[in-house]
Amino acid sequence: MSNPASPPPQDLSFAYQLADKIIAAQTAPIPRGAIEVAKSCILDTVGVTLAAVEEPCVKILRETKGLADGAGEAPLLGTAERRSALDAALINGAASHALDFDDFTGVMGGHHSVAVLPAMFSALGGRMVTGKAFLQAYAVGVEVAIRMARGVNYHHYDKGWHPTTTLGIFGGVASVATLLGLTRDQIATALGIAASLSAGLKVNFGTMTKPLHVGHANRSALFACLAAEAGFTASAVAFEGKQGFFDVFNGPGTYDAAKILADWFEPWEIAHPDLGLKQFACCGSTHAAITMALKLRKAHAIDPATIAKIEILPHGRRLRHTNKPFPQTPLEAKFSVQYGVARALLDGVVPLAAFEGDAHLQPEIRSLLDRTDARPHPDMADDAAQQWGAEVIVTLTDGTVLGERIEQLVGRGGSYPMSETELWQKFEDCAKRALPREQIAPLFERLLTLESAKDMAQVLRLSLVSDLQKPQIRPDQVQFAAATGEDAPETTWVP
Predict the structure, then answer these.
(1) Partners of 277 in beta bridges
(2) Counting beta carbons within 10 angstroms of the beta carbon of residue 48, is it exposed (0 to 12), middle (13 to 18) or buried (19 or more)?
(3) Would you state the pLDDT for residue 493?
(4) pLDDT digits over 232-253, tens only?
(5) How far apart are CA 344 and CA 348, in angstroms?
(6) Contacts (Cβ under 8 Å, ≥6 apart) of 267
(7) Which parts of the chain span the membrane according to its record (predicted)?
(8) What is the domain-level CATH number for residue 32?
């Protein structure tokens, strides 16, 4: 008689079933439309990573003992520096999420591209990987990260885990395993290793530790694959076993592993409509409200001086981590729906530089924040199918009440994608912080036609600079100064 407490046969464990799905995905055809979305996401992620090269959290990591003095061949995007593959995955990963300007998905409640791409960049090494193969590996990773969310959310998210990293790490494993050509056993083992390395607490949102989550998830995903390839071991039941990932991270009765394994490629997750790029450099949960505020201001030519009261009513899930009435730091401003809406109503634009320096402390902004109230929308239930809606109501000093409402807005994707012109505008605004102007357009064009690239290492080289090409001041400061009427410093390049 078999022992009922014994683990299931190895081939029936969740890790092995997921490994089988990953292997099948490596050769599954991807529709043309999904390829276009994938290219846009990769392009966008490279741009926001370049924009963050000089962000404090990234500079600290680049200068941290043990990270700064390591030699290696893996590049740090937007710099002339190189590190070991693992350290580069960590630093590029943190940079990719430092501005909170990266793409995201409502299903995951997190950011899909930054969970896989930095590890993929490091995994290239000296391998000749075509753009087409890279796109396939990227789509496989996104598939796994979001499929994991389908089995554990929203309990996982509400419990306080940061899904970008706690779930994204498995997407990173899938993408890297695809690039490395790991076997079925090795993929299952890497997933088991990653189950123990998964981490990220939402309590650290609004601090440097949030992008650090992403850096470590990428480093851990790459490490898990390299260790498994070298013969490291892990439990075959690291997910469903007693005190395994599902029970520890969610708890009995709060997940459904079958949902993770069902209906793959129907459609591919990269083609899901609730996946979008960010138009604003702040938490995606604020975007619906900001968009409504911009629409109000434009439609009614609102003079901020005539605003008596601002009411923000987002879906309750969107407010829980963005209810910061008076942000004290630029990072807190990224997680303040009140600030995002006030900025939109004050300036009619919400540029990248609105979340830097002392922009959140401007007297005009603080005055509007004094008149702002945010609360969960009473008509948007927690368990509603659509959970990314918001309503903004503005009452003017003459008693006029104006309002705009949207039921669902998950970034710029699905039926509301960014145009090529908009992609270029965002990419250029980001990339000019790290690259000389003459290098930006060729990189953009190469990423836009990624499927025809012969060697991804050559593509990455376009994102690197020499010490002679570092900007002396950040061009976004010029843009924001011009928008606010302040004197703009002259942009120069270090000779």
Answers:
(1) 412
(2) buried
(3) 21
(4) 999 999 999 999 999 999 999 9
(5) 5
(6) 31, 34
(7) none
(8) 1.10.4100.10
